[in-house]
Design goal:
The complex is a heterodimer.
Chain A (H helix, E strand, L loop, with lengths): L1 H7 L1 H8 L1 H32 L6 H17 L4 H24 L7 H23 L17 E6 L2 E6 H23 L1 H11 L1 H6 L4 H26 L6 H6 L1 H8 L4 H22 L11 H12 L14
Antiparallel strand pairs in A: 1-2
Helix pairs in contact in A: 3-7, 3-8, 3-10, 3-12, 3-13, 4-5, 4-6, 4-10, 5-10, 7-8, 7-10, 12-13, 12-14
Chain B lengths: L1 H8 L5 E12 L2 E12 L3 E5 L6 H8 L7 E6 L2 E3 L4 H6 L2 E3 L12 H7 L9 H6 L2 H20 L15 H14 L4 E5 L7 H18 L2 E5 L3 H7 L2 E6 L2 E6 L1 H6 L1 H11 L1
Parallel strand pairs in B: 3-8, 3-9, 6-7, 7-8
Antiparallel strand pairs in B: 1-2, 1-4, 4-5, 9-10
Helix pairs in contact in B: 4-7, 6-7
The chains are: A mainly alpha, B alpha/beta.
Chain lengths: ~325, ~270
């Protein structure tokens, strides 16, 4: 009886009685949600264009952040390091297309998936070799990102908003919106959707698969770099960061592997629900449910809509 | 001689495409054996033959999806051992597919717009922002596509996602996408397959109009013998990957090899 009360009544009583805490939790869920949406977008773009679940997306997050911090440590000014890191992601996209995707064109998706696992370990090794394996601090201040917090007095309490979180949400929002517009409204976007629907037909009208792959991997690289900066600023820049990218999995299951709006909405749902679950229901089982709750949610979701909220068809890959 | 006359009557003597001694095999399966034929500028050329004769493989060789082990392809005076899809598309070869290959999630308009991909030259930078040259360019191409939509009489389904359209209309949209490329050589893989009589008549009319109005050279695969005989200037017949006849519809109809291999089979 007490357990049922704890699950079904008490959390809502708390939400009602302490609305300031609810707002705080929702805000944190929103920030996480926008970052998850950003990561998931990287997966969706690559999945749409090359039909492969990019296992290396997580390590691309780390690699982007490491390049930035590493270059700064080598004495490169912060903004130049940022530009160089973007260029590195471009080189990476170009190399992946040339060395991994092009030779494997027309292979089974599982083979491409294996190739991205290989890429994952290659990038771990390369990153450690160049920049070393120890955790580093993100150069938040040098990049002009804000620190400290705003405290708002509202709803009979305080809501505290970390400025870096606000910046993260805004930057993620701009990137997500920008990419969504780019891939929906431009010629390249049309070509991407064409490639996603039918490779042969796309080739027959003269769309270059190689060019689309490079653009998409570069976009995914930029997304990874942005995620690396934002997440790195909240913790450390270390190889553990790549775990964060795996949170994109439940997001993709919710949103559908091929849908850009799905990635955005799925990201927000996962962000909100994991923070709410952690804060209100976590104490019942001793806390720390944040790390597995999204996967649990995705599992339940799979029973009802295996193609995701916005997925067009049942995905037979991955 | 009559084949040459038919071509001359069309006002063209120039070979746009010449296939020479092409052989294609997949492992041990020989799909095409030592086939040669040509396509004259401006003509409607049919490729016929029983199932598995290698017709679609031939189209795939012409537009670069398949790379033959032997032989050569001369297109617009340039001889190659094999084509590449991108080169084929940029040199003016457009095609449709046997099983409609449209971008199912996109509207009719967007599908046909993809046919303009190679005609859009302005810098990617402008496309990022949809400013300046990119914006004007998009409008110009949109206008061209509207012409095609009018020509094919599909105004009413402009905004409909093609996945929802009936099969006959999908085939028409696919033709529209190929026409949007302003092709010099149009390859049609069974444009009338699975259509009812009325749809076949419409499609035949469009094929003839394309040829007459735009002067496009057309190579088509078709099973409906009535359609083939009415539409085409010259016919090449394949059987088990080999060429067994080549000539005007009348010549081919009387050819004993063709009767044995193709028409004979239906009895």
């Amino acid at each position: 009886m007490e357990l049922l009360y704890g699950i079904f009544v008490d959390p809502f009583v708390q939400m009602w009685e302490f609305p300031d805490l609810l707002v705080q939790v929702l805000w944190e869920g929103f920030v996480s949600g926008t970052l998850y949406a950003l990561i998931a977008l990287g997966f969706v773009l690559i999945f749409k264009a090359s039909g492969v679940f990019n296992f290396a997306q997580g390590i691309m997050v780390v690699f982007g952040a490491l390049s930035l911090v590493g270059l700064y440590a080598f004495g490169v000014p912060a903004y130049l390091a940022l530009i160089l890191s973007i260029a590195i992601m471009g080189v990476l996209a170009y190399s992946v297309e040339r060395v991994v995707l092009r030779p494997l064109v027309n292979q089974e998706p599982i083979i491409l998936f294996m190739a991205t696992i290989g890429l994952n370990y290659f990038l771990i090794g390369l990153g450690e070799m160049i920049f070393g394996g120890e955790p580093k601090t993100m150069i938040t201040e040098e990049l002009g990102l804000p620190k400290g917090a705003w405290d708002f007095e509202m709803l009979g309490g305080f809501v505290s908003i970390q400025r870096i979180d606000a910046a993260a949400a805004i930057i993620a929002g701009i990137l997500v919106g920008g990419l969504a517009i780019f891939f929906n409204k431009t010629r390249i976007g049309r070509a991407l959707r064409a490639v996603a629907d039918d490779h042969q037909a796309a080739l027959s009208v003269g769309i270059s698969l190689n060019q689309i792959w490079r653009i998409v991997w570069f976009a995914a690289g930029i997304v990874a770099l942005a995620t690396g900066i934002m997440w790195g600023a909240r913790s450390d820049v270390s190889f553990a960061l790549s775990i964060v990218a795996l949170k994109a999995l439940p997001v993709l299951i919710l949103g559908g592997f091929t849908s850009i709006p799905g990635a955005i909405i799925g990201g927000l749902i996962i962000g909100f629900s994991e923070k709410l679950a952690e804060f209100y229901w976590g104490p019942l089982v001793g806390g720390s449910i944040e790390s597995w709750f999204p996967y649990f949610l995705a599992l339940i979701f799979l029973w009802f809509r295996p193609q995701g909220l916005f997925g067009e068809k049942i995905i037979d890959r991955v | 001689m009559s084949a040459a006359e038919a071509v001359e009557a069309n006002g063209a003597q120039e070979k746009i495409l010449n296939i020479e001694n092409v052989s294609l095999s997949f492992g041990g399966v020989k799909a095409i054996r030592d086939v040669s034929f040509d396509v004259m500028k401006g003509e409607i050329r049919a490729i016929i033959g029983p199932n598995g004769a290698g017709k679609t493989s031939m189209l795939n060789v012409i537009n670069g999806f398949y790379h033959p082990q032997e032989g050569s392809i001369t297109y617009k005076g340039e001889t190659r051992q094999d084509m590449r899809p991108y080169i084929a598309a940029s040199q003016g070869i457009a095609r449709t597919f046997q099983n409609v290959a449209l971008f199912r999630g996109m509207s009719t308009l967007d599908n046909i717009m993809t046919g303009r991909s190679l005609k859009m030259n302005s810098n990617l930078f402008w496309h990022l922002w949809r400013w300046g040259p990119a914006e004007n360019e998009e409008l110009d191409h949109r206008e061209f596509v509207e012409h095609i939509i009018g020509f094919l009489e599909i105004e009413a389904i402009r905004k409909t996602p093609v996945g929802r359209l009936p099969y006959g209309l999908q085939k028409r949209v696919e033709l529209g996408r190929a026409l949007a490329m302003e092709p010099d050589l149009l390859l049609l893989d069974e444009p009338m397959a699975g259509m009812n009589l009325e749809e076949k008549e419409d499609m035949s009319r469009f094929v003839l109009d394309v040829s007459a109005q735009f002067g496009t050279t057309i190579a088509l695969i078709e099973h409906d013998m009535g359609v083939v005989m009415d539409l085409s200037d010259r016919v090449v017949v394949l059987d088990y990957g080999q060429k067994i006849a080549d000539g005007t519809p009348d010549e081919v109809r009387k050819d004993q090899n063709v009767i044995d291999a193709y028409l004979g089979e239906t009895h």
